[in-house]
Amino acid sequence: MNLTPIAKLYFRRDADRIANWKGNTADIQLRQLRWLLFKGATTDYGRRYDFESIMRNTDPRLAFSQAVPLTDYEDLRADIMRCVNGEVSILWPGKCLNFAQSSGTSGGRSKFIPVTRDSLRVNHYAGARDVVGQYLRSFPESRLFSGKGLILGGSFESALKSPNPAVKIGDLSATLIDDINPLANLFRIPSKKVALLSDWHTKLDLLAKAAASANITNLSGVPSWMLRVILRALDISGKASAAEMWPNLEVFFHGGISFEPYRAEYARLTDPAKMHFFETYNASEGFFATQAARDNDGMLLLIDRGIYYEFLPLDADPSRDLPLRADQLEKGRIYEMIITSCNGLWRYRLGDTIEVTQTDPLKIRVAGRTKSFINAFGEELMENNAERAIAAACRATNAHIRNYTAGPLYAHGRSKGRHQWLVEFDRLPSDLSLFSATLDSELKRLNSDYAAKRFDDIFLDPPEVIPVEAGSFDRWLHKQGNGKLGGQRKIPRLRNDRSILDAILPRH
Q1: pLDDT tens-digit map of 338-387
Q2: Contact assessment for residue 409 and residue 417, using Cβ atoms and an 8 Å cutoff
Q3: Cis previous bond, 492, omega within 30
Q4: Do the beta carbons of residue 447 and residue 404 sit within 8 Å?
Q5: Residue 326: pLDDT above 60?
Q6: How far apart are CA 224 and CA 251, in angstroms?
Q7: CA–CA dist 382, 380 (Å, integer)
Q8: Using an 8 Å Cβ cutoff, are 338 and 348 in contact?
Q9: 3-class DSSP state of 229
Q10: What 3-state DSSP class applies to 116?
Q11: Cis amide linkage into residue 190, ω under 30° from 0
């Protein structure tokens, strides 16, 4: 039974709402800030920074940015731990019973992001509706609800325990699945019991078995982990491709990491005449953006879903310069994104950078992490450069990667210094030297600073690509995440030091 025509009526309101954003970004964002300040005024944090006074200001946006400091997780850790321990109305009104554990991609101790009832209602679930609404608007021929969606989820396993047994700490996806509208379970697999298993190895087989025999029309998850499930399901089913196993498969809603290094492999496994790839930008801290057209010319920033956005130019001094508002950005520029959200994160430096592809309504691409780069030799290599270059090297050598990371190898002896790339291949390159050369040439094309440092090998030697054995990154993740694996765990792509390289490299 195809219920897509009925579903379209449900999702049409959200799609129509977004169509009216043009010319209204400033007003919509101002309303979000006023609502957030009103809700936060009764909290310990709101009293600390006198939100009541900010709300009475003729321009609360300016007053807010002047009175409330920029924060990162460590600035809020003590307040968040008070919430974990059961204190009420610290960062957001009421008691928070869910926390999303995230190691992010910048190392350090685990983060525990509050997931309030308002953030679930106003942001996470509402953002997911926007994704489906925009997809159905972009592809009116869709039969999305004629089958089921395969949705990867995490678990509530965590080393941190709250004195309140009602508090649940784990992956954001576990909370989303645990609290999902029961009607949605009619259109998704696996079962909640399987979805919330903490042992990824056990879960992988159960996921694959459930998926192999189901009528799957859509996939949702992180590309690297979803590929693991698909390949295991193919082993179980004996089918040659996902297109053969799931003849009605039409879309992969992907996010979490760049899709580019995996695009060729997904294209090989699916039917190009039917298959679409729809990008989303969601994280433990919030649901921020969704693709909104057939051709992905950038993701539409969700400006009315319980988040007030600020943006800091990369050349700005945070101690002196005020961030820009969403209606003040320039096309083609890259900014650090700052959020104030209904989960109690106030002027929070997310650690992500975005590139503006359209200003009205605002569309963005994720450029990378503020701490995910290599600049050991003045090359200023950013994550978006790395993702595109790795994808080009894979295409040139018919390779497929599972994971990778890169960092500097400093000058020693006759070496001028170089980048080392640790790559776990699912399919080895036809020519490793060509893979390395293509990676190098593409980085030169994409990044003028890198090209200058690599000119005639004067300042920087060619990159060194080191294949590592299967499971290397899983073992590293296992050590980082309290013994956990799963779809919420991400490999830092670039580091400006050797901490990850030295932890993964085989010891001789």
Answers
A1: 999 999 999 999 989 999 999 999 999 998 877 788 888 878 788 888 99
A2: yes
A3: no
A4: no
A5: yes
A6: 16
A7: 6
A8: yes
A9: helix
A10: coil
A11: yes
